[in-house]
Amino acid sequence: MTGPASSAPRLFGRRSWAEARRIADILRKETIGGALLLVGAALAMAWANSPWSAAYEQMRSYTVGPAWLHLNLDLATWAADGLLAIFFFVAGLELKREFVAGDLRQPRRAAVPIAAALGGVIVPAALYLLITRNIQGAAAGWAIPTATDIAFALAVLAVIGRFLPAALRTFLLTLAVVDDLLAIVIIALFYTSDLAPIPLLAALVPLAIFTVLVQRRIRSWWLLLPLAVTVWALVHASGVHATVAGVLLGFAVPVMRSRRAGGPEAGPGLAEHFEHLFRPLSAGVAVPLFAFLSAGVHLGGLNGAVTALSDPLAVGIVVGLVVGKPIGIMAATWLVARFTRAHLDEGLNWVDVLGLSILAGIGFTVSLLIGELAFGTGGERGDYVKMAVLSGSVTAALLASVILRLRNRAYRRLHEAETADQDRDSIPDVYQDRDRARPADDSVGDRTDDRDRIQRAAHTRVDRARQRRRDRPA
Q1: Residue range(s) defining the domain that contains residue 426
Q2: DSSP per residue over 355-407, as a string?
């Protein structure tokens, strides 16, 4: 039994130390952003249901921007079209990195998150359409329950899943990255109206110049930022949702280091550099402000909330997020395991996959955005969408918390094994053991990154020893 299992493909296997460090850094920033997102949403709900709710609506509808450029937009639209373009720029950087140097570059590794993300889109959309089939115009919102909000999900994990194994966190992040790609495609294809081809074609000119500059590793903000804003403005004028411009700009940035720059000591690639710069802005400013300007909805007391959540449109969204997401992700993951004869990594169980699948039902940011694109920012249906997204996301968070907390003791043991560093070289022992007994399907890039890290740690120890000898009194 042990022999075949050990040679079979593994689901949620441990990555390289370099990749684990990178993922941990991303998750740390997104967790902080998730906490700020929740604060922004809570403030919006409190203000919208206070005696000063009229002031909240006036603030959201306040118009600012140059009219001659057709950018005299209200603050709610600026948040959806402008601030979220930063969010999707970071998503574009992460997507390209995953396809060039991450999990998605290898078909065997990419199969699980891609299949899980597809299942997590198809099943919720089908359930929503089934529930709302007799409601006129409701079909426009079919994509609302298909999104996963990684910042919100990681904020929940920070509270209830501090010891969740790195492989499961990586799966959740990669799933969310693929989910973002699907959301971008859905927005571009299904939520574009009154397409103006001339501005769209004109956007290709500054985009091409931006691409040439970043491919030459030019980082000068006074060159790149005006080009990026011009691309965004032209895409906005074309009728395509402006957040697509952020993704296109992210895709233009090179991932790999310049060959002329030298080896691993030359520093990170330009995509990683931009990601370090813009991820805090996205997670800490853009997304929380969007939540603050979009999540506020007047509940109208208990009776009003019950009436809203009993509407078929709201029921379809909640069921899609809470039921459809986990069914789609679990079914797709199980099918991949079944047909590839893969098995879960040591110490993991299918209940762990269930917990993460339910957690992926937190669809806050992009779900609210698609809801606004489908039904507008005002009106009864717009309020129903907000209440349903909030209720479904909170319900998914609570259910996932219960399931993942039940496995906390097992996660703690895995966490202790993953962080043990008996030789105190700043690299957990489990990653060095893995490097000595690495399966054949692991990438050369992972081995090189790990070897570079280990060599740098060894050089650091030698330098410290030499310094201690020099500091000894004669």
Answers
A1: 420-471
A2: HHHHHTT--HHHHHHHHHHHH-SSHHHHHHHHHHHHHHHHHHHHHHHHHHHHT
